[in-house]
């Protein structure tokens, strides 16, 4: 009887973990096959925006130079409390920092960092060029506006912030978990120069919500071949194909 109870308990725990990891997606989706990007918009009515006209990512070409406000980063070290392998990427979530955590100020508006995650290779292209990886930093303002910042990653020297994350990277899909005694400073993933491209787009995965202001930083950040390989063993190609501009204008900071 005790063994049966233990077994049932384990089943419940596994089911809970799986449900927790997938909680943000009611309907499963993939990066290829019958549930791949070509089919996202038909998998679930909640994903209908995936067939929209202002979708991301894009291939950035013929950007228009403009006098644009600077991105002012206020990232700081914070405990690694919500690390997750969600079945599509490795992600760091922030639930407790609505007012005091890391944030970016743009044109007088403050955007709190809500999460960051990775893609291999880069989802964004610059004049057709694909980078080895990209980090997406997602932010939200107090009035509900969403900002995405893409940091292109290229092969080079080892990145200490990446290494700290990879040292605790969950290799199987599961729920959020805390890594005691470890703090992560997201500024360690930022380049030295903050020139950027800006355009109006969407989330790059279901539900593909539009109305996202995207900033793609022009200067890439180096990560080592071993660090790229470590992520690739889990997710060799977690990338949505580039989407048509449909008349959108991409602006380039001067």
Describe the structure.
By secondary structure, the protein is of the alpha+beta class. It has a single domain (2-253), classed as Carbonic Anhydrase II, CATH 3.10.200.10. The protein is built from four helices and 17 strands. The protein has helices at 2-22, 40-43, 160-166, 225-234; strands spanning 59-60, 64-66, 71-74, 78-79, 83-85, 90-93, 103-106, 109-119, 125-126, 129-130, 133-141, 146-155, 183-184, 196-202, 210-217, 221-223, 251-253. The strands form three sheets. Strands 2, 3, 5, 6, 7, 8, 11, 12, 14, 15, 16 and 17 form a twelve-stranded mixed sheet that branches. A three-stranded mixed sheet has the order 1-9-10, with no helix packed on it. A hairpin with a 2-residue loop joins β9 (125-126) and β10 (129-130). The termini are far apart. Residues 1-23 have low confidence and may be disordered.
Distance between the termini: 71 Å
The domain tally reads: 1
The CATH architecture comes to: Roll
**Count of β-strands:** 17
What is the name of the CATH topology? Carbonic Anhydrase II
Q: Hey, roughly how much beta strand do the residues contain?
A: 25-35%
Kindly provide the name of the CATH class: Alpha Beta
Question: On the 0-100 scale, what is the average pLDDT?
Answer: 91
Structural class: alpha+beta
Rg value: 19 Å
The helix fraction, in percent, is 10-25%
Order of helices and strands: HHEEEEEEEEEEEEHEEEEHE
| Full CATH superfamily name | Alpha carbonic anhydrase
Weakly predicted, low-confidence segments: 1-23
Structural shape: globular
- What profile does the largest beta sheet have? 12 strands, mixed
**How many alpha or pi helices?**
4
